[in-house]
Amino acid sequence: MFDVIIIGGGPAGLAAARKCCEEGLEKILIIERDSQLGGILNQCIHTGFGVGIFHEELSGPEFAHKYIEMLKGTRVEVMLDTMVLEINKDKEVTIINHDGYQKLQTKAIILAMGCRERSRGAIATPGSRGAGVYTAGAAQRYINIDGYMVGKRVVILGSGDIGLIMARRMTLEGAKVLACVEINPYSGGLPRNIVQCLNDFDIPLYLSHTITKIEGENRVEKVTISKVDERFTPIPGTEIEFDCDTVLLSIGLVPENELSKVAGIQLDKRTKGPIVYENMETSIPGIFACGNVVHVHDLADNVAMEAERAAQGVSDYLKGCEREAEISLSTTSEIGYTVPQHIHLPLDKDRYDIFFRVRKVFGPAYILVKDQEGNQIARFSRQYIIPGTMEKITLPKVLLQKGKGNLTVSIEEK
Amino acid sequence: MTELICIGCPRGCHLKVDEENDYAVTGNNCNVGAEYGRNELINPTRTLTTTVRLTNSVHHSLPVKSAHPIPKKDLFKAMEELNGIEVPAPVKCGDVVYRNVADSGVDVIATRDLD
After folding, report:
1. In contact, A145 and A171? CB cutoff 8 Å
2. A196 contacts in chain B (CB < 8 Å)
3. Inter-chain residue contact A57 with B51, CB threshold 8 Å
4. pTM
5. Is the peptide bond preceding residue A126 cis, with omega within 30 degrees of 0?
6. CA dihedral in degrees (A17, A19, A23, A27; nearest 10)?
7. A194 CB near a chain B CB, below 8 Å?
8. Domain's final residue, options A301, A321, A341
9. Complex ipTM, two decimals?
10. Looking at the domain assignment, is residue B29 inside a domain?
11. How far apart are CA B37 and CA B14, in angstroms?
12. What is the pLDDT of residues B7-56, one digit of tens each?
């Protein structure tokens, strides 16, 4: 019998394991489907990791390396090349690997499966189906792990961070990145990545544009982009053509919750991840979740911090912390979602961190938290709030105690 | 006055650098921003991350980085040099795999253990 089984050995799983160990849990197991720990960190060879956790700027593999070193010689067991087939509410974990099919029993589970890339099918890109269309993360793996170059003349659709990072990577490796095309009037990536990945190499960013045609029978030969109106409909007469052999898609990530669904864990339609409490517990007691399986993060450091909260949650759960009721958090339409979606009662923490993303760009604004009766219990000032950066507010317990019933988070422009 | 976005950390502070006042930086939330704003106008530098060919291993590529930022104008020269080298496994994270890249005085180090 395990105390906790952690599904996934990427940044979320590694950080959760370390914290579970620190909390004194005895039987800890990480299950990883790849042949090595680290998950997506292994292909993220760029720097920008670790500032929040280790106070130094590390590459993805270095960030993973730090955790792997910390876990060496500890009680944490690792099963590599192992696929989890099913989990259930009784905390049975069904796995398959070279040794065959097994059921493992555990007292708690941490879901740390991460996310997947949205693909071409998800956005129905028009045009032929020649080779040369990749998701940005797949191209990243081919180049950084497998050592293959994926193309010479590239158009990138979407301006998420992976797309921006790949624009720089392909350029450094000798490709010509002709354009980064974003359907929204703003980029979904971090501002620093616009600067150091696009501006540094004079790669043009076409906002409010999308790909309207991909041509080429055997291999991509030409891409047409068009400007779009407010409803994302292409405007005739605005077409620009690029002769290129490669299209990279950086059009969003979706939490990977096949296991969660089968287990009957309640998912949030907005995040596509489990609905969680402040301790990262899902709707099934004893099953916790953290990282990109819950909601897509900008930074591995934030994933690791969330994983530590989940590990703390498991530790408290195993000690038998009683939970009676909850406060629910909702948002007004300018905010996409909040994580957590619920806060357990009684309030047993001094502070509660709430994370969310806005749906459009805001200049100077207030983040307001109101209770069920419309009383404002907290207000936070910001110089700007953008969809590309996850926002965080911290609610002290004393303020939460003042509020009556459920809470609503909203934005008010100054 | 030049406006910049700091790349020192993911926060991305909006900086203003005053060239006529000894490159004084405002809008930063820490010293990294002050230093970045000044350097960016005088001698912009970047940490280079890439891969080099790995031999004697089931893995093909070894991730590496410049141990310190190098001048931005030398990034492509550094890439050309690194594309020509091979490193035999095993390698430890932090091992120097190439010295004085693009004559910058900066070494290139492995960012991962690979057998």
Report:
1. no
2. 7, 46
3. no
4. 0.94
5. no
6. 0
7. yes
8. A321
9. 0.95
10. yes
11. 10
12. 988 788 999 999 999 999 999 999 999 999 999 999 999 999 999 999 99
